């Protein structure tokens, strides 16, 4: 998404979620971010030019164990949990174009085609493996990587016990591609890793370690729940190797070359920082080994933490998205996650922080601005936004014989707001190139709060009393202009609320139109229109402590 990589089609992905347990905030975060980006890109490129992929990761030891614990057959178990993810995405307005499950035949076929292609290219071999395995992370570790505590061997990543493994496995050659990968990441031309700190982390890892070849299989006598290897009856595919391939299997790898060419390489893989190495090291090398281009960008976001620790089921500190959505609404939830933490940094989730943002940003700033504007249209202009004639205001403000200082100020402040609104699309465009969601929202709220100040400074109720209707027109038309631009700018973040504001302002055309073209919002500051009666968007919440977790 740097200038160079902008094309007229956009393919974005989320990780595939493990179906060992129900989705929590962390999972919903990636999908809300991806959905916002997808909506934003559809406005720019058109619906058919954006492909948004998500799905579920359904193989491996961890899921096999979870199915056993639930007393269910693995397939029955994954069907059930995968559906809970789909339901949540519907509830959260996630507009994915495709949902891939790694147990689907189209994926299984592609994974097997990859195995064969790698063999043909001499990139895989069989050898004895001895080392450690972390089931929660589904990751292999070497002797030197694990650490000891109280006589136990622990995973360097998640600090949970690892198990000793000795078995015959298949390996993907890695080390001969190490220099190529370092170069590619350093150049940041074909493969951009963001944020910068994550890029440095990957480079640091690559420059200080000799890459071990990647184990890509598990013996069937230890694990049946995997995709059978086409090279050996005794092996299934290692879950990470299987899962990464989804990004190409979903766009036709091995079956539909035209489709694959249409979408691959992906424009961005959005992931959490804990799975950076799999995406930024193993995946590009696997693609290179297949003769395919790397993704153009990998963006690793931070974690939602609670009590100082990453939210996760095993730590027992998860917050259920559905509970929050039921209490506060989908759009407030989407807004909070994308506004509270800068994308790339960790965020702390608490009920207090949520309610504070809700009441301040949504109920007070945005909700009140709309409410006051609509009420004034109702009260002073019979339910219409007054159309605006700049010439009349110009004359009033600069009439030398009878200078009207109030009119002048109102006209000047309008110009400030108009300029802010007119520059907003460019600012958003720039920020969205680096997925700076929180900063985009901060820019929108800067105008919203300026508009609220405009009301205070212009005192429209006094203008009405004094019969200064030209000035009153100017103020209300300006406020409506700001709100129209705001509705469109927040729509990718809050689709329901964006639309609601838009229709309350009496706008008939679709909200889904490209505003990222210079001058495209200027007309909103001239035209009038019939508005709806004010209805509160965000009823204020009285804080009740401690019932979110
Ligand atoms: N199945 C693998 C990904 C395979 S992608 C080819 C996996 N699944 S996961 O369900 O464990 O995690 C999926 C994503 O959710 C990761 O990007 C992870 O960072 C994210 N989150 C899980 N908990 C999180 C938080 N508490 N906060 C933010 N995101 C976190 O890994």
Hetero groups: 5'-O-[(L-methionyl)-sulphamoyl]adenosine
Major sheet details? 6 strands, parallel
**What structural category characterises the helix and strand content?**
alpha/beta
Largest beta sheet: strand ordering: 3-2-1-13-14-9
Uncertain ranges: 1-6
Taking the alpha carbons of the first and last residues, their distance comes to 37 Å
Just give the CATH class of the largest domain. Answer: Alpha Beta
Number of domains: 2
The proportion of residues forming helix, as a percent range, comes to: 40-55%
Plain-language structure description:
This protein is of the alpha/beta class and 549 residues long. The chain has 2 domains: 3-301, HUPs (Rossmann fold), CATH 3.40.50.620; 351-530, Orthogonal Bundle (Isoleucyl-tRNA Synthetase, Domain 1), CATH 1.10.730. Helix content is 48%, strand content 15%. The protein is built from 19 helices and 19 strands. It has helices spanning 25-45, 61-69, 74-91, 105-120, 178-187, 196-208, 239-244, 246-249, 257-263, 276-290, 321-328, 330-340, 351-381, 390-398, 405-432, 437-458, 460-465, 469-490, 495-504, and strands at residues 10-18, 50-57, 98-101, 124-134, 139-141, 147-149, 152-154, 163-172, 192-194, 214-215, 217-219, 235-237, 268-272, 297-301, 304-306, 309-310, 347-348, 384-385, 529-530. The strands form 6 sheets. A 6-stranded parallel sheet has the order 3-2-1-13-14-9, with helices on both faces. It has a 4-stranded antiparallel sheet with strand order 5-4-8-10, covered by helices on one side. Helix 2 (61-69) packs across helix 3 (74-91), helix 12 (330-340) crosses helix 13 and helix 15 runs antiparallel to helix 16. The relative contact order is 0.11. The structure holds 5'-O-[(L-methionyl)-sulphamoyl]adenosine. 5'-O-[(L-methionyl)-sulphamoyl]adenosine binds at residues 15-18, 26-27, 29-30, 57, 243-244, 246, 271-272, 274-275, 303-304, 310-312.
